[in-house]
Amino acid sequence: MDVVYGMCVQWLLRCVLFLVSLPFLQSKDVTMVIGEVGGAVTIPCTSDLCEDHLVFMYVQRPGSNGNNPRFINGYHTNKRLYPKEYTNRTHVDPRQRTMKLWSILPSDEGLYECHIQYQTKKKQENIQLNVTANYSIPIVTVACDNVSCLVTCSSDSGYPRRDIEWSPNPPLNQSHWRVVNSSDVTDPVSKLFSVFSSISVNCSSGPRLNLSCAVGGALSQEHTVCWPQTGSPDVYVTSAVVAGAVALLCFLLAGLFVFKERKAQTARVDQVLTDLTLVPVPSPNSHHPASLSWIPHSTAPLDSPSGPAYPVPTPLSLHTWFPTTRPSFTWPALHLPPVC
């Protein structure tokens, strides 16, 4: 009885070891290939190219329950094959024992079986095609108040589904932030994934924090959250814009004031020149010639008769009419012949 019991235990152990090692034995016979969505991949049916007299080579995909395999493409020496679904996306090379598949879709992922028949033997190869698609650069949005920040990360057009990973800098204890929502959406046409994740950060735990997220090999830019309550990035930007606008307005007003002041000064000079008249002034000595001087229009006309009603004009110099900031000058005297 003990001998029978021992044999049963030994047999059970062998069965367990066989079942445990079965996946490794199967994976050893499966060739792994990777293709990217929209790209092309070559499925190798065999590495033995020295065998001649190839009769046919079929590439198919097994059914869900192991039955009803789906024919992909192939080669036969005596007849031409017409694949239906993969006519414009596959090409079989019988010399290299390969099949090329392009315009890869996520639905192309899975196990492929190559059935090769020679004149003397038959061979089967299994190929596992894994399909990938790079996720877009994640987009991060931040919404903060005085207590916490809600940070959302999103990325799309990726395959297979990936989880979003958060990277706080400096590192935070898990008690200071938590995942609020994590979801994904599959496009009904392309079968690509869009993933979303939102976290809540407790801003009372310390100073401002830099956050980034990653999905697959795509990494977002760092975003600053939990700014001090004295201000936020938007407040600082607004203050800088307002200060710049005020400075520009002051500069324009100062320029306008200087322009008007210069224009008014020029008008005063022109008015002074308009109000002055150049007249000859007789010399008290008959032996000296008469001189010309500027006098205002308000004095007697040049052709007025002499008498008490028309006093003799007093010579004026220009510096009494022009502003003191301008250089004063005197018109040169004109020498006329003596007045008889």
From TrEMBL:
Keywords: Cell membrane, Disulfide bond, Glycoprotein, Immunoglobulin domain, Membrane, Receptor, Signal, Transmembrane, Transmembrane helix. Residues 1-27 form the signal peptide. The keyword Transmembrane helix applies. Residues 30-132 form the Immunoglobulin domain. This is Immunoglobulin domain-containing protein. PANTHER family: T-LYMPHOCYTE ACTIVATION ANTIGEN, T-LYMPHOCYTE ACTIVATION ANTIGEN CD86. Its main location: membrane. It is found in: Cell membrane. Gene3D superfamilies: Immunoglobulins. GO terms for cellular component: external side of plasma membrane. GO terms for biological process: cell surface receptor signaling pathway; cellular response to lipopolysaccharide; immune response; negative regulation of T cell proliferation; positive regulation of T cell proliferation; T cell costimulation. The chain crosses the membrane at residues 235-259.
